[in-house]
Amino acid sequence: MVDNRRRDFLRKSSVGLVATLTSGLWFDMLAKGIVPPHSTTFFEERFGVSREDMKKILETALSKGGEFSELFFEYRINNSVQMEEDLIKDSSENITLGVGIRVLKGAQTGYGYTDDLSFEKMKQTALTAAAIAAGNSKVSIADLTQKTSGLKVYDLNLPMNEVKLDSKVDLVKQAYMAAQAYDKRITKVQASLVDELQYVTIVNSEGLFIADARPQMRMFVSSTAEENNIRNTGFKSAGGRVGLNFFITTETPQSIGKKASEEAITLLAAVNPVAGEQPVVLGSRQSGVMIHEAVGHSLEADGNRKKTSIMWDKFGTQVANPIVTIYDDPTIPFYRGSYNVDDEGTIPQKKMLIENGKLVGYLQDRLSAKLMNMEPDGHGRRQTYKNNPIPRMANTVLAPGNASVEEIIRSVKKGFYAETYQGGQVSDSGKFTFSVNMGYLIEDGKITRPVKNATLIGTNVQILNEIELIAHDTAFFLGTCGKDGQSAAVTAGTPTLKLRQMTVGGRK
Amino acid sequence: MKDQNLLQLAEELVGFGKKNGASQVEVSINQGTNFSVDILQGEIEKLTEAVSKGLGLRIFVEGKVARASSSDFSKDTLQKLVTNAILRAKLSSADPLAGLPEKEPLTVDVTALKIYDPAILEMAPEKKIRAAKKTEAICLADHRVKKTFGSTFSTYIGERYLSNSNGFSGSFKRTSCSCGVSLQAGEESNLFDEGWYDSSVNLEGLESAETIAKKAIHRVTRLIGGKKVESQNVPVVFEPPMTAEILGFFSTCVGGNNVYLKQSFLAGKIGEKIGNELVTIIDDGLKAGAPGTEPFDGEGVPLRRTVVMENGILRNYLLDTYAARKLSMKSTGNSGGPNNLYLSAGSSTPEQIIKSVDKGLFLTGTIGFGQVPTTGDISRGAFGIWIEKGELTYPVAEITISGNLAQLLQGIQMVGNDLQFKDSITGPTIKVAEMTVGGK
Ligand SMILES: [Zn+2]
Q1: A371 touches chain B (CB under 8 A)
Q2: Which ipTM did the prediction report?
Q3: Is the pLDDT of residue A464 over 70?
Q4: Cβ of B228: how many Cβ atoms within 10 Å?
């Protein structure tokens, strides 16, 4: 994004309110199934907001001539446990409650929100949002009909909100101790577990009435290794739309801790990269972040509708090597970026973006789809009730190819192999940058010394055409994507792939 | 905004926590009104207006900590959060250093801080919309500007309340406003995004639509035709926003948490010569009318002026109460991070600084996240103008810039006189002896 260097008062003064997690003590009523997880009656039973009230608020929102109105109710319980310096240092429980009211008129949005769900406050907020239009009411509100998503992308077997805090503390300790025990040179470890349950109910003037209850869980470990005055940090996170089962079926806390330390230790021997243009191999482990940044963002519908994305005039054209196929799929069971219903109430679909190198789709929300004469595909997401929905990625995937990893490495005489990342950033003009936490030199077709402090830089149009070989060892990177000041949980997956040429930055 | 007795609510919850078994309790509440208008192609794209609030609490039970927050202010919810936190705290590990700050008298006169401007409250929405429209219109009229991503005008009027069981009870109001525009320029696929935003505590201090538009146009059009250069080590001149960015990384490295956890290369370096003699870095939380100024921090510790680096010597860290105790130091009122952190102005004009470079980079923008506090290593994507024989020549793009913060601070050879207090982290133009540019 262009100007994120500007810091504002809001961010500063809200410190202390941004923490995360749950105790299992809180929502006993929900945990015991008294309120069914997908119930559209959640906000009525808990906060007394009846269906008639919702309809009246939707009407008020259109009273000045708006064409579409929508209420987004949110109740979120978020819990965290943190360990560092051998101590369980902190735990937190955070509750987010509020409603966002949106009014659309053409391409214009009026938005208001309140954390007070009394009828009067909601009505007042609706009037604020209504002010985007100036005139008389033209649209009548359809009767609210309950709709359900057929998708079941959450593992609700052993939800984290039912897990007692002492069990969560145990999980964090297991990860912490495994990281610490990995090597004598590990000097610091931090481990945390964050879980969340978000209830949403979405109603709109077209009569939609739908609800979702979304779990999210993430364990994170960072390990610092020290030797001869050199210090390096390795990271590992794991989780998804899952519960306690994840640690049994998918990855143990010990394995998460160990992987963080493994990276920190490897980096002790790392050298700085050779700066300049060279062949680059993107390892499957985390390189999905590249697909996300370099390709995904440029295919979000809003930027293309407004013609600010570099891809706006390339629909239907060949934008990549024909071996490249990229899609986004919010319906992959249990993945961090998945959901049963998007934040506008649309049931999501797997969306093909680039098929055999050809640009075939954009990620849509309602507004962009309508203005572009396309169909919404369930990619309208928002951070909280305070934000209007915008097109976002969910789980973005580069499809597997025919090459083998060995063949790819062997094909490089002198180049760079990227393994883990600190993050990446892209501007609307398509220029992107990735910070590689750990990479390797490739010399004479073999992976040799570890490399730190490397930066990869390029433009998306160029990079799509530089993809030369694709393997089939797909892995996923768990991330949090930021756009227009809103964050969203996402994943991005790719197999190992080779870029013919890319600029690597580093020290000379 | 009417007084809803939020301070009283905070005090009551502190009492409730004490009564239910907490040894110490802290409750903070924010309430504010946000307004923002986005303009795209001369039309309102989005209009947002809302009042919102949030409550944060910290509970200590014999050195064991738990936190909570909520935007649900119903009595049941808040009391449940307190009792839950007390139960959770008991499952934490005891840490003798954890706890509220010692009570320190608040001597500052809040009005003298000039952080509240009623004119922002009174400004009509139409005026805000007009200012945003005008800013964009000026940019659109320039034929070199290919596209606009739109302009924004926003205001914030807020109140903060804090109460704790050590007897602290305080509140203050503050305001801010900002206006900005983002643009795109360039040819074919070689496009550049840039813009300019200005923000201010008071309406009077906000740059005019003309000034913001002019700066945004200048910033984007000077990049047109940007190309790669050969990889090489050269001197780098940092434009003020870039100096601020480096200081942002510096603030992470002197942040108390990173220091006591030894996740910063500056841990254990107090009293050592880290930077060039020209480098003095100060955090002044009491500078009147500055964006980071407040009477007290998130723990109720009075803000103050802290010399972090004096003529290159590391003098202090930015500390909250816990980090201070860990390091046997005193809190600097930085529980919310840096307040107004700045690199003191020098005597050179920006022109003199550029003139002094035979061959090098004038850095105007970066992209990416490559900054590692443990080592001080920096590696990011960069944009700028190439300097030859003391003159700005052609734009450069798609390069990387890398170095190390310790070497960078040592290598600051010239410091500009163009320091402004528009952002809470700020600095003048500087010249760094050598960094690596990665290009062709
Ligand atoms: Zn992203």
Answers
A1: no
A2: 0.91
A3: yes
A4: 17
